[in-house]
Automatic annotation (TrEMBL):
Organism annotation: Nitrospina gracilis (strain 3/211)
Reactions it catalyzes: nitric oxide + Fe(III)-[cytochrome c] + H2O = Fe(II)-[cytochrome c] + nitrite + 2 H(+)
Claim: Transmembrane helix is one of the keywords in the record: no
Gene3D superfamilies: Cupredoxins - blue copper proteins (2.60.40.420)
Entry annotated with the keyword Oxidoreductase: yes
Cofactors demanded by this protein: Cu(+); Cu(2+)
Underlying gene: nirK2
Protein name (database record): Copper-containing nitrite reductase
Amino acid sequence: MCLRFSPLILLVLGMLLPPAFAENPHHHPHRSGHLPSVGLGEAPHFHEVDVDKLARVDDIARRPYDLPPPIQRKKSETVKFKLEFRELVSTLSPGTEYVFWTFDGTVPGPFLRARVGDNVEVTLTNHPTSTHSHSIDLHAVTGPGGGSELSEVKPGETRTFVFKALHPGVYLYHCATPNVPSHITNGLYGLIVIDPEDGWPEVDREFYIMQGEFYTRGALGDRGFQDFSPEKMMQEQPEYIVWNGRVRSLTGPGSLQVKQGERIRIFVGNGGVARSLNFHIIGEIFDAVYPEGAMSPPRHRVQTTLVPAGGASVVELTLENSGDYILLDHAIARIDRGSYGLLKVEGQPVPGLLSTP
Ligand SMILES: [Cu+2]
C-alpha cells in the first residue's frame, strides 16, 4: 500500500520481469516472504496489515512520570498485573505514522512493580483486532522462557501465569513470540522493578525512560505512513532511535519536571533490538548509578552509564542548580534519530556554579 515505484522503473521492470511480477506494483522480493535466517523460530518478515482496521491513538508515548511509587510494605504478597496487547496506529515522528504493537496501548508498556519474595500473577489478553499472537518474557522470572511458554495468546485470548520474584532488581519485559526482534522493536517492551526487601533510598521523584528502535521502510524524516522494514532490522540500521515510543515524547509536556534541590531517581531501560544506550545528562553528574540495574552498592559520580539492549540502569541525582538539562544517548551520532529528552529544573541560578567572570 505504501510502496511507490516511478513509472520509469515500472516500465523497465515490465520489460525485464515475468508478467505476474510486472502487473503487480505491490510486489517486493521480501514483502511477504521471510528473510534468510538461521535463528530461533520464525524469520523476520513483513506482514501486510489493513491499517484502516486498526485503532488510531494520538499519542503512543508513556509519560516518564507514569510509574507506581516504591513499595512500603515489609511482607511478601501476591501482586496481580493485567496487560492487554493492542496493535495501534500512531505518530512516530511529526508527520510520520506507524503501526505500533503495545502492552496496554503505550510504548513502553506499564511500569510493573513488586517486592522481592512476592508471587506475581500476570494475566495477558490479546485484543481481538490484533493481527499476531503475543507473549511475555519477564527478566525477573526464574524459569524456562521467562514466562513466554505459559503466556502466548492468540487475538481474543486470555491467559494467566504466576511467578515468584526471587531477586530484587530492574528488569526488562518484552514479547517473546517469533520473530522475537520484530515483536520487540515494534513497541512490545517495558520495565518490571522488583523492590529490594528494605526498599530504595528515599528520593523526591522517580522517572521511567525506555529506548527503542524503529526500522521504517522509508528514510528518517519521510512523511506519511511507514511500513516496518525487516531488512533494515537484520542489518541493525534503525531509522529512528527514540525514548518512550516516539520522537520528542520527553520534551514539552513530556519533559521531566523537578524543583531545585530535589533528589530524583531515573529508571532507564533499553528494549533494543540492536543498540546499547549511553545515557548522559548534559550539565549534570549522576550522584549514584546502579550499573545494569544491579542491586549492588551503587557507583558514585558517574558521567555516562551504559544501558545494554535487553537491560536497564538506575541513576540518582540531586539538582543543585536550576534550568534546562538535555538527556541524551551520548553515542551522539544518533541524536538526530530521536534519542533525547529534557529535564526542567524550576528554581534560581546558584551564584558561582556557572557564570562569566
Ligand atoms: Cu508479540
